[in-house]
Write a structure and sequence with these properties.
Strand content: 15-25%
Number of domains: 3
Shape: elongated
Number of strands: 12
Distance between the termini: 41 Å
Largest sheet: 6 strands, parallel
Radius of gyration: 22 Å
Number of helices: 12
Order of helices and strands: HHHEHEHEHEEHEHEHEHEHEHEE
Structural class: alpha/beta
CATH class of the largest domain: Alpha Beta
CATH topology of the largest domain: Rossmann fold
Mean pLDDT: 87
CATH architecture of the largest domain: 3-Layer(aba) Sandwich
CATH superfamily of the largest domain: Response regulator
């Protein structure tokens, strides 16, 4: 790499998870280092660069790990929202290490969580979006036993020692999606006459938050419009290419698709496959104002997006970690966010300034 460094070796080591000796070899272009180590050092320096303006002298330093499995469009939005909230964190200086992956096994996430807890160096908390699986819950328990608080983001994990859940009220979101779908499909009072198919698209079946949305949606639709047939599609990880294949196969068999509730994303692919199949008037309800959904909303390809303020979520997540360490009063507590229904006419100014 051979360039002047703006950060202390110890800070780069903490940020990357590598030893001081490895950092020194990478920075001085010495032999015997892997390409993976070089990438880790480069990533650590980029993260430190971005967070440098947030640092304050004289405050306690808190180092958090952000671990997420989700499409890049969403993890990037979360990372940006989290880093934007660092300056307002009081009374500590907070630094973030990020491990963001689009897909992978639960075992890989468990390994990452165990590595965080077993490094023998500072980690003051973990913010995690992970599948709801027993092995993940056990890894969270191990972190808690080491005095490292875990806050689950967006989707919760059952039966574990996480100190708080921060994210959308997923049951309310699913019911809201059902309400909007039925209102778009038919005039008030005639829902029972609806027939046809509604596709419910999840990124993965083992994300608890998505499952809660889908279950609430299905319950509301079946109660109000029993003539509609629900078809669930899952495990494309919200990635466009895999989502396209999933939707294309469904449309080959389902000839009367009236609506799509896209719980887990990949909506550019959803729209493209609907068009290819000649399904031009289906209602489409999505989640989260990422760049893809914002473009589709403006173009009239999505009828509504269910949204929550990621910066408010990140602010709440940081607050729970600080409470755990008694840097703020009160005990850590879960903070479910309310559902915002976004149309092309009420996009929040912070996301799309006029």
């Amino acid at each position: 790499m051979g360039r002047d460094r703006a950060h202390r070796l110890q800070d780069i080591a903490d940020q990357s998870g590598l030893s001081l000796a490895t950092i020194d070899r990478v920075l001085h272009d010495r032999p015997g280092v892997s390409a993976r180590a070089v990438r880790a050092v480069e990533q650590a320096q980029l993260e430190l660069d971005r967070q440098q303006t947030q640092l304050r002298l004289g405050a306690r330093s808190i180092l958090l790990d952000l671990v997420m499995q989700a499409p890049h469009r969403f993890t990037a939005a979360v990372q940006q929202a989290l880093e934007a909230e660092l300056a307002s964190a009081r009374p500590a200086v907070i630094r973030i290490r990020s491990d963001l992956r689009e897909q992978g096994s639960a075992a890989g996430l468990v390994g990452r969580l165990d590595a965080i807890g077993g490094r023998g160096r500072a980690c003051h908390g973990v913010l995690v979006k992970a599948p709801d699986q027993p092995d993940v819950a056990a890894a969270i328990d191990r972190l808690h036993a080491r005095g490292i608080p875990v806050v689950t983001l967006v989707t919760d994990v059952h039966d574990c020692a996480r100190v708080a859940y921060v994210g959308l009220d997923n049951t309310a979101a699913g019911r809201t999606a059902a309400y909007l779908t039925l209102r778009f499909l038919t005039p008030r009072g005639s829902e029972g006459a609806l027939v046809g198919t509604v596709l419910v698209l999840l990124s993965r079946g083992d994300f608890l938050g998505e499952r809660e949305r889908a279950t609430a949606f299905a319950g509301a639709v079946r109660a109000q419009a029993p003539g509609l047939r629900l078809v669930e599609l899952s495990d494309a990880d919200g990635l466009d290419e895999r989502t396209a294949g999933l939707v294309a196969r469904a449309l080959a068999h389902e000839r009367d698709v009236r609506a799509v509730y896209s719980v887990g994303g990949g909506n550019r692919a959803v729209v493209a496959q609907l068009r290819r199949a000649g399904v031009l008037d289906a209602v489409l309800i999505g989640h989260d104002l990422d760049a893809d959904n914002l473009d589709l909303l403006r173009d009239g390809q999505i009828d509504a997006v269910l949204h929550h303020d990621l910066r408010a979520d990140m602010r709440a997540a940081l607050r729970q970690v600080l409470r755990y360490h008694r840097l703020l009063p009160g005990a850590p507590t879960s903070v479910p966010a309310g559902v915002q229904v976004i149309t092309p006419y009420n996009v929040p100014a912070r996301i799309a300034p006029s």
